[in-house]
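Justification of resources, computational component.

The compute hours requested in this renewal are based largely on the per-chain cost of generating structure records like the one below. Each record pairs the submitted sequence with a full structure-token output. That output is archived, and it is also reused by downstream analysis tasks.
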Amino acid sequence: MITVEEVRRRAEMDAKTYGYYLTPQPDLLQGFLDGLKTNEDRYGYPLCPCRLASGIYEFDRDIICPCDYRDPDVAQYGACYCRLYVNKQVYESQNLPEVPERRPQDKQQRAYSAETAAAKQASTQAGQQKIQPTQTTVKKKLWYCKQCGYVVYREDPPYICPICKAKREVFAEIESKVEFMG
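The structure output for this chain reads:
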């Protein structure tokens, strides 16, 4: 199991790498760190403590902290959605902005549906009919950044390239065809 101190070090290193700060409010920061630890213990990966997770890695991939939405949120509002990561101005002023949810509605709904199905299944007793969760499959694609060449295999391209900070629009899908000779 990971410790809260390890979660803090990881978040601090990530913030420093990207020129961010962790929220200036100590109680809020501790709550976020505790939430990240709890989610990592529960699911095996550090999910955003402010969003509903499904527990299905492919459905949750976009909200693994730091989530896909952090960089565009900080660029636009000065803080990410949960306000764990903030820019220098917000850190110094200690005025945390309201940040609207950027995660697409379909991804939120998918997490909610999976969570509800899992809860229903867990509540069934032995001998009763088991409820099987209905899972939407995630169609992964190969994306590359036309600016730096970064390649990622996932449902959607990231909002911002983690290497060169290019916007999502710079990503292109790599289409591949497999032909068999017979």
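The first strand starts at residue 21 and ends at 22. Confidence is low (pLDDT under 50) at residues 123-135.
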